[in-house]
Amino acid sequence: AALLHKKEQLYKQELAWMRRQPQARATKQQARINRFHDLKKEVSGSSAETDLTMNFETSRIGKKVIEFQDVSFAYENKPILQDFNLLVQAKDRIGIVGDNGVGKSTLLNLIAGSLEPTKGQVVIGET
């Protein structure tokens, strides 16, 4: 990564030099122009997209990922959740949508353990 960064910096410097339209008559300048074109191929080739596969699958001890059991939560007597039940199992997909102030962040904070429910319990499954 550091070598690529160094080559990209050199490429930028040489590109600025090329934009000043050097005369290609002198041998040194012709060699520098040739090196610029080689560097351009090298930098553009190395920054091309490559396929990267990452596998995050791990074996789970159980199917339960998270479970809300009769969870209630309120901010200053304003109920956000009331007797909320939810079971999220492995490979389930969930989406959290709603208007501002309806409890999306509160739900995530309850999952993360940053907030404690006023009633009920949040059970995190074992991994």
Please, could you describe this protein's structure?
This is ATP-binding cassette domain-containing protein. GO terms for molecular function: ATP binding; ATP hydrolysis activity. It comes from Streptococcus pneumoniae. InterPro entries: ABC_transporter-like_ATP-bd, ABCF_ATPase, P-loop_NTPase. The protein has 127 residues and is an alpha+beta fold. It has 2 domains: 2-46; 64-124, 3-Layer(aba) Sandwich (Rossmann fold), CATH 3.40.50.300. 37% of the residues lie in helices and 24% in strands. The chain has 3 helices and 3 strands; from the N terminus they run ααββαβ. Strands 2-1-3 form a 3-stranded antiparallel β-sheet, with helices on one face. Helix 1 packs across helix 2 (27-46). The longest helix is centred in the first third of the chain and has 20 residues, at 27-46. The radius of gyration is 29 Å and the shape is elongated. The two termini are 34 Å apart.
